[in-house]
Write a structure and sequence with these properties.
Layout (H helix, E strand, L loop, with lengths): L2 H19 L2 H9 L7 H19 L5 H24 L1
C-alpha cells in the first residue's frame, strides 16, 4: 500500500483516539462535582498510553500519530484518576 495512504490512516486514527480520550473530560467534570467514577479505566489508559508512547518513540522513525494521541491519553487519564481519588 502507498505510504502516503498509510500515513493518512495513521493521522486519522490519531485524531479519533484524541476524540475518544477527550471523553474523559466529562468524567473529570463529574469527579470535580462530587460524583467520582472508577479509577480502573483511567489508570489502565495511562499505562497503555505510556506503553504506546514508548513504542512510538523507540521506532527507527518516531511514529508521531501514535505518540501524540497517547500523550493526550496519559494526561487526561491521569487527571481523571487524580480527580476521582480527590472526589472520593
Amino acid at each position: 500500500m502507498d505510504q502516503k495512504i498509510v500515513d493518512k490512516i495513521g493521522w486519522f486514527a490519531s485524531i479519533m483516539g484524541i476524540i475518544m480520550f477527550g471523553s474523559y473530560i466529562d468524567q473529570i467534570r463529574l469527579n470535580i462535582s462530587g460524583q467520582p467514577g472508577s479509577i480502573i479505566l483511567p489508570i489502565a489508559t495511562v499505562i497503555n498510553g505510556i506503553s504506546w508512547v514508548t513504542y512510538g518513540s523507540l521506532k527507527p522513525r518516531v511514529d508521531w500519530p501514535i505518540v501524540l494521541s497517547n500523550v493526550v491519553a496519559i494526561v487526561l487519564g491521569a487527571v481523571t484518576a487524580v480527580t476521582a481519588v480527590m472526589a472520593a
